[in-house]
Predict the structure.
Amino acid sequence: MHLLTRRFSFSSSHRLQSIAMDANGNTCAYGLCENIHGHNYRLEVTVSGAVDPATGFFCNVMDLSAIVRETVVDPCDHRYLNDLPMFQGVVTTMENLASRIWQVIEEPLSARGMRLVEVLVGETDEHWVRLRRPPAADGL
Amino acid sequence: MHLLTRRFSFSSSHRLQSIAMDANGNTCAYGLCENIHGHNYRLEVTVSGAVDPATGFFCNVMDLSAIVRETVVDPCDHRYLNDLPMFQGVVTTMENLASRIWQVIEEPLSARGMRLVEVLVGETDEHWVRLRRPPAADGL
Amino acid sequence: MHLLTRRFSFSSSHRLQSIAMDANGNTCAYGLCENIHGHNYRLEVTVSGAVDPATGFFCNVMDLSAIVRETVVDPCDHRYLNDLPMFQGVVTTMENLASRIWQVIEEPLSARGMRLVEVLVGETDEHWVRLRRPPAADGL
Amino acid sequence: MHLLTRRFSFSSSHRLQSIAMDANGNTCAYGLCENIHGHNYRLEVTVSGAVDPATGFFCNVMDLSAIVRETVVDPCDHRYLNDLPMFQGVVTTMENLASRIWQVIEEPLSARGMRLVEVLVGETDEHWVRLRRPPAADGL
Amino acid sequence: MHLLTRRFSFSSSHRLQSIAMDANGNTCAYGLCENIHGHNYRLEVTVSGAVDPATGFFCNVMDLSAIVRETVVDPCDHRYLNDLPMFQGVVTTMENLASRIWQVIEEPLSARGMRLVEVLVGETDEHWVRLRRPPAADGL
Amino acid sequence: MHLLTRRFSFSSSHRLQSIAMDANGNTCAYGLCENIHGHNYRLEVTVSGAVDPATGFFCNVMDLSAIVRETVVDPCDHRYLNDLPMFQGVVTTMENLASRIWQVIEEPLSARGMRLVEVLVGETDEHWVRLRRPPAADGL
């Protein structure tokens, strides 16, 4: 069983602001992150699978790239994330970005035989979040 | 003659939009960069000087850091650059950021004995701009 | 379930020398590492948790940073690690640094609702050690 | 239980071409990768073990390095991978490189008390494959 | 006067072999580099110019990218460099790659108002070559 | 005219302490850097020359590497820099390291036909010093 990872980047703006909290609560929770600011986001998508003996890979990294570009990178790059349909209803934290990106890419990846096992979203090289599927019964 | 460089980072949003052009001109010149987006900006400041034999350095890197943090990094970090006083009247391209940052830091650096020779501003690890002082008569 | 990672760095000196071995044993085990030398240590701390729907994150990365800075980075940075109270009684290998750092940060992180799942200590970009909590029954 | 990782690099050429497919199949599966091209391959080897209280490490990173250099890096560096004995019978995808490298290094590492838990092979900084041993019953 | 730099990468194979030397001479000069091997080449192109007040940049990084992609990156990526028309008659050292790439891109860049001042070609992150235009009379 | 750069690393300890100042002066100038601490030093050596048409390079990067390893990297790696003969009489700042390394490598490089044009010494990825030869009359 192999894991394949592909790394992407997109340059976007966002702000952290929650309708579930008042002004004081937002300031207290988010500090400077309540301002509209931006990042070169790092996105790493990891899938697992069994190698096809004919080709020697279990998924073509080009297929993985095409799916993630079309559904995530192109809609997010050079945009204000808070305005995007895919992030409506949630604060644009790394945790929520990872969850929504998982929802968006899991099915098209699965349709091409790739089992999504991890989505990593990083705002900088100093901090990042990973959303990870629990190991399957077969131990992966 | 030595050159000392210190690297900084700030996470900001901006958009490229020029009042000198109409809507078509802006779209044509800037494309997606006309949207509000963001970067983890890379800023590298290089100064030259002669080593003080007593201390073994010609400027304390802490002095350089303090000046640049106070005048550039703190005002820019987690902000929308187009709204900042220091970038009024110019489009927030890398070229213009470098020029304005130069204007802001040259004098305080000089007051501490550091001759500013280069300001590098990068939006990503793939592209950046350097503003550089012509070599002095002494060949630096 | 999300994993949040924060990366730190500290510039310290150390030497590998064990009182459990004689001079020959130390030379044989550690070679050049028996000399006092140094590194820009890389430290990555990973915690897990459940996202708070109000804020959109399960812990504020600022809280995590503050705890690790106060208990590890500030005491270690620009110091000789072998002299520090937190590393008494052990050889300052990456393995032992990871274990002691785990002991120091686990409780304060837990008190803020963060479950420590991995400590990574690297001496260079070419080699590092990770201390990892076994996956919990819920599969994390 | 600790994990130790050591990173290596080798500069090699390869091409993706499968005898299990005809010309059209190869072109369709591999595209430009069917041409002889090359990479600075990234190889990361991770082993697990219990720390020896006398030395403070569970394996000397020098032992790990020597084994991987002798069996993998030296035979592969500055070579055409498709011609090497260790990759005969397989297409030189990252997946197959990882599998063969695992077979080559597992026993010598084990003979020195290191349990191999992961082999990472990356063609670029943007995509890589990991072959990972399922967690042991003790939860590692 | 500003300098703009754009970074590119291409994954290619090559070998160092000179018709000006016999077999012994080649082995002596190139060692392992005489074998067909490969790299993820790093290419950095730097141009200079004066900022257009209307747009705030002196050349659009997209124009620079398009020119270099079309004339260098696309023809070189996933190819055996020794077979390419643009490198006929020279040994594919970093020095010669830089010279030929300079010849290929200087005119189209100039036609778009960009003065080429440096081409950097690196085989790895540990060694690289720069071909640089002497500073102009105006001191750049 | 080409510039060739080779990057090296060494892991060493040092402290900043000047006999030209009293205790207060040292504390004031160096702060925490007066403690014995350490770094993974970055060293980049740049030489210039004219390409030999027979070989296609003007100096073999292997020659450059061998000289710098023998005279600088091996004596410094895993050592306490303040104790080394090559740094006696100076405070071990980046500025002074660069000057002494220049003195040590310039002649052996010159004897192999390489003109030393820059020595870069960095304590971290965030700050570094460059010692640079003034451009020659031929404009390099």
